[in-house]
Design brief:
The chain has about 280 residues and is an alpha/beta fold. The protein has helices at about 5-20, 35-45, 65-70, 75-85, 95-100, 120, 125-140, 155-165, 195-200, 200-215, 220-230; strands at about 1-5, 25-30, 50-55, 90, 145-150, 170-175, 235-245, 260-270, 275-280. Bound molecules: pantoate. Pantoate (PAF) binds near residues 58 and 152.
């Protein structure tokens, strides 16, 4: 397995693939890999001639320094996991100053308004950071296809907008959420949960399922109420937001509209750890 820290050496490795018109699949990550990431890598391996996985904790997408410092750093273990899937994976683990051309700051993006919803409201500058780093990574890796998990559904929509804005010929593929046995969506942040918190965190998935079950019978107002009540019952959780939004625009509607696909989104805190999840409702 080849591990590259510099853009020049990665580009040199990818050159023969480009020359021979072989397809390059790309899975961008911030490391602390889990089965969710591995499912993206496996799909990329099935669909491409070569696969690049980037491992880079992107400083510009964190809205607070403490969160950045707390982010799990497990490079050695990540490499073992990737190696266990395929020795052919090409790993790109760049140095921030080189990736950012000595200017570690975000570009300002307008992603058709999607950036103003949910995570955009609660994590100032987050999507500018995500857009900036992916634009830089996409230009080095030049993939044909890039893979993102639906757990970060809003991020997935943002990336689809990003490639249009930046005019990048990359097919963006969304992959299903991978869950723990108790339904908790896999996330690098789960590593910070105690055993008890991990078990309690099943509440997120259970609540989303209740919303899905009742979607046709209850109004949006009543569904919101249902979620608030479920979270109030728990001593462990603080609900940051619950929204039912149009799957394409991520905007909310007052009442259900015909022929619109809706999705439920939750962000909450448990023991200081912020978790998000979402589910298609119809
Ligand atoms: O989803 C993530 O891990 C990050 O936001 C990404 C896409 C790797 C960009 O840093």
């Amino acid at each position: 397995m080849k591990i590259h820290n510099s853009k020049t050496s990665l580009k040199a490795t990818l050159l023969p693939f480009k020359k021979n018109k072989k397809s390059i699949g790309f899975v961008p990550t911030m490391g602390a890999l889990h089965k969710g990431h591995l499912s993206l890598v496996k799909q990329a391996l099935k669909e491409n001639d070569c696969v690049v996985v980037s491992i880079f904790i992107n400083p510009t997408q964190f809205d607070n320094q403490a969160d950045l410092e707390k982010y799990p750093k497990t490079l050695e273990n990540d490499l073992i996991l990737l190696y266990s899937i395929s020795k052919k994976i090409i790993v790109f683990s760049p140095i921030a100053s080189e990736l950012y051309n000595q200017n570690i700051s975000s570009k300002s993006y307008i992603f058709s308004g999607i950036e103003k919803e949910m995570e955009g409201k609660h994590r100032a500058g987050h999507f500018d950071g995500v857009g900036t780093v992916l634009n830089l990574l996409f230009r080095v890796v030049t993939p044909n296809k890039a893979y993102f998990g639906e757990k970060d559904f809003q991020q997935l929509q943002i990336v689809k907008e990003l490639v249009k804005i930046e005019n990048l010929p990359i097919n963006i593929t969304g992959c299903p959420i991978v869950r723990e046995k108790n339904g908790l969506a896999m996330s690098s942040r789960n590593k910070h949960l105690s055993e008890e918190e991990f078990e309690e965190a099943a509440l997120i998935y259970l609540t989303l399922n209740k919303v899905k079950e009742k979607f046709h019978d209850l109004t949006f107002k009543n569904l919101n109420q249902l979620v608030e009540n479920e979270f109030k019952k728990s001593d462990f959780f603080t609900l940051e937001y619950f929204e039912i939004a149009n799957s394409s625009t991520l905007k909310t509607d007052e009442n259900k509209l015909k022929n619109i696909r809706y999705r439920a989104f939750i962000a909450c805190f448990i023991g200081g750890i912020r978790l998000i999840d979402n589910m298609a409702l119809n």
